[in-house]
Amino acid sequence: MLEEKSKELNLEDPSRLALMTLLTWGTRCSFFLCLTGLVVMTWTAPPVSVGELPTIGDCELACWKTPGAAIILAGIISLIMVSAGRLILTAIMYLKAGDKVFSLLSIFALVLVLSSTLFAFFGW
Amino acid sequence: MEVLLILVLVSFAAGFIGVLTGVGGGIILIPVMVGILDIPVHLAIAASLVSVTANSLSGGSQFLRTGSVNIRLAILMSISALIATLTGVLLSKVVGGRVVTAIFALMILLTIWVMFKGRKDSFVDVKDSDPLALKLRLPSWYTPSTDGQKVEYGVLKVVPAIGIMAFAGLAAGLLGVGGGLVQVPVMDRVLKLPIKVSTATSNFMMGLSAAAAALAYLALGDLHPLIAGPTVVGIFLGSRVGAGVAPRIHSKHLRWLFLGLLLVMCAQMIVKVILWK
């Protein structure tokens, strides 16, 4: 079993390298998108005072039309997808190692993460 | 002052203190947003979840490189945590903002208790592992020091840990905090993992629960760009700076200052629950 870990830690393994690259660059790109959106919002959107914060309602589709908000949304979705994407890579990693149980568990966890989109039926 | 700037500064401070004290940014950020800035609690939770996801990913690569993450264990424990996370999101919509704020105040008290008790490193040998852990090949090794020497560790009480991990998931979905406050002590005291492995594995799990909950709040329309944008940027930068200066700061003094701050924020949230409009 400890040899199993050695296989997981093999830096030559392409799926493991892909996992580390996904985390490093995925996070950087998402952060850059959020930062860009924030800059655009600061420059172009009408300013909001602290006193208006308690009256901010739930974010209906219209609030994403504010300048910069769509870029922030892209950054947020990218962050969530990078996090969920890790499970695809672990599923491949375990499948290659012949471990079908953990490969299936990774896929099941991915399905659970993505099933949260079903909440859209309760909102908007 | 411009709201975006205030939110970036508040989130920066939350990320900075969260890294130095080891509790994450959400436990500081949400009380400040709800108690001081009067932001609706659901919007604060949704924004906090996105920043928890960002923090988990930014530290994830380093943890993978050093081999501290027990990925098999993280995936196994994530199943119950993810089911509980989705239940937590649903529950937060059912019970309403006042109850969520009250539960959050209790969560702060739990944080204070956990910080007072402290942690102890008490991992066990591979040969003493739970039969289920051996069957699932969960025992592993890690490198505690820079000399690259491998230390093997076992895993105990897998089934109870899976059950308790559901509470961490529930905390993520219902309160918007990473759940590390539950996960790390459970891995430390129930599964008997070394602290370094517990922290890294918890970080991996946290990102999954937070991503699922953030996606659910986005689908529900509770993720507001005006709040989430500056929060992600502020917390991300704050935790990076915090991780850089951490070795030069005396954590003992900071711990007491943080405990005082948490007590004030807890009192503020209780007052808000009592005077709820």
Task: Characterize the structure shown.
The complex is a heterodimer of chains A (124) and B (277). Chain A is mainly alpha-helical and 124 residues long. Chain A has four helices and no strands. Chain A has helices at 2-8, 14-44, 69-96, 100-115. In chain A, α2 (14-44) packs antiparallel against α3 and α3 packs antiparallel against α4. The radius of gyration of chain A is 20 Å and the shape is elongated. Chain A starts with a helix and ends in a 9-residue tail after the last helix. The model of chain A has no long low-confidence stretch (mean pLDDT 80). Chain B has 277 residues and is mainly alpha-helical. Helices cover 74% and strands 2% of the residues of chain B. Chain B is built from eleven helices and two strands. A two-stranded antiparallel ribbon of chain B has the order 1-2. In chain B, α1 (3-21) runs parallel beside α10. The longest helix of chain B has 26 residues, at 41-66.
Number of domains of chain B: 1
Provide mean pLDDT of chain B, rounded.
Answer: 80
Poorly predicted runs of chain B: none
Structural class of chain B: mainly alpha
Give the H and E element order of chain A: HHHH
Provide a count of the helices of chain A: 4
Strand content of chain A: under 5%
| Total helical elements of chain B | 11
User: What distance separates the N and C termini of chain B?
Assistant: 26 Å
How far is it from the N-terminal to the C-terminal residue of chain A, by CA? 48 Å
Helix content of chain B: over 70%
Based on CA inertia axes, which overall geometry of chain B fits?
A: globular
Percent helix range of chain A:
55-70%
Secondary-structure-based class of chain A equals mainly alpha
Biggest sheet architecture of chain A: none
Over the alpha carbons, how many angstroms does the gyration radius of chain B reach? 18 Å
Largest interface: A-B, 70 and 72 residues
Number of strands of chain B: 2
Order of helices and strands of chain B: HHHHHHEEHHHHH
